[in-house]
Every structure is written in C-alpha cells, then in structure tokens.
Design a protein that fits this description.
The structure is a single chain. The protein is α/β, with parallel strands linked by helices and 216 residues long. It has one domain (28-191): Rossmann fold (3-Layer(aba) Sandwich), CATH 3.40.50. Helix content is 31%, strand content 23%. The chain contains five helices and nine strands; from the N terminus they run H-H-E-E-E-H-E-H-E-E-E-H-E-E. It has helices spanning 2-24, 33-46, 74-89, 116-122, 168-173, and strands at 57-61, 64-65, 71-73, 93-97, 129-137, 141-150, 156-165, 176-178, 189-191. The strands form two sheets. Strands 1, 2, 4, 5, 6, 7 and 9 form a seven-stranded mixed sheet that branches. A two-stranded antiparallel sheet has the order 3-8. Helix 2 (33-46) packs across helix 3. The longest helix has 23 residues, at 2-24. The protein is globular, with a radius of gyration of 26 Å. The N and C termini lie far apart (123 Å).
Length: 216
Amino acid sequence: MLKKATIFISALLIATLNGCASYRYYEVKDADLVEVSYDATCELKDRLTRTLPKNSLIIVSTLLNVDDLSKTSSFGRIISDQIASAFHNSGYQIIGMEMPIDLFVMKEKGALHLSDEAKAELKPYRPAVIVGGVYAPGKKNTYVSLRIVDLHTKNIISSTDFSVPMGPDAKFLLETKEVGSAGARSEPSLEGPGATPAVEETVPPVETETPPENVK
C-alpha cells in the first residue's frame, strides 16, 4: 500500500512540474496588426470632439519609442502606415511624415506647443489635424497611445490606447531604429481623393565646352 502511494505521489509531482514547465515556455501569439490598427482608427474617429470633414488633409506621424523619442522601429512605422491607410480608405487625404514627438508637448490648458521649424514644415500643406503617438514595449505586451491634434486650436480632439501581445512577429518588428538624425523628417507623401502628385522637375545637363588643343 505504501509503495502504491509513493508511486502515486511521484507521478503527481512529475505532472505538476511538467505543467509548470509548459506554462513557463508558453509562447505568446501575435495579434493581427492590420485589424488592431484599423480598430484603433475607428476608435479615434468615434471619439472626435469635433467633426472632421471628409477629404480633410491629415498628417500621420510615425509612432516613436516612449523611452527614446528620437527612435522608432518597424513596429512604429507599420502601425502608423496602417492607420494612414485606414483614414485614406475613409475618404481623407493623407500626408505621411516622421516628426519628433516634442511636436505633441502639451502646455497649460491642453495647448499644443509647435516649434517654429514645425510650423514652417507644415504651412505649405495646411493640414487640418495631425495623428501621432508613442509605444512602450513590455515583457508580454506593447502599449500604444494615439492622439489626434487640431492644428488650428492646438488641442487634442481624440485619443485612444491599446496593447499588442509580444508574439514573435511583434518582437522582431520592435527592433529599434533611428529616426534619421535627431528631429529629422522624411519627405511627405500626399495621398487621398483629389490629391495632386508632386511633379519631379528634370534639369537638363549643363554642356561644357572643351577647349581646343594647343596648335604648334
């Protein structure tokens, strides 16, 4: 009887240890980033505190790492690009840009601080709003915070937060990359209904006259 009890306890301990091991090595599954980005865009639109007319021009800025606002990753780029696509599919014109997060520094009473450089950069496009935010990688999830800022009133008119499980794809995409040089911005691409693509001006090569050879 004692022998049987000993065997039973040993088997129970092995099963328990195996259960702990399987829990310890459980792999987190990836979420569908496209679905996550589109759902977040819907939430941003639903939470708008003022109407944003269709065909409005929107700047979508690349998401930045909250621990180092001069850096992003493939994760930050793809989320912002998918958000831009979602807005574009909803009938808005889109400009994609990389901007330093200090563009979103809020002062007293929720007023947005815009540097003179940022104002000069945005002036030719006359956008209605700018969409941007940050992400914070964790052990099991990456946390994302998004906001829409009205560039006329300088106030936040919509915001949302969500988390993404740290599956293998998410971990790979989260490898940090520099955002060009500090404060650098990429050349904006204009997309949307009625948008006019930029025309590249071709400069003809300058012909140089070859001097005649010395005649003896």
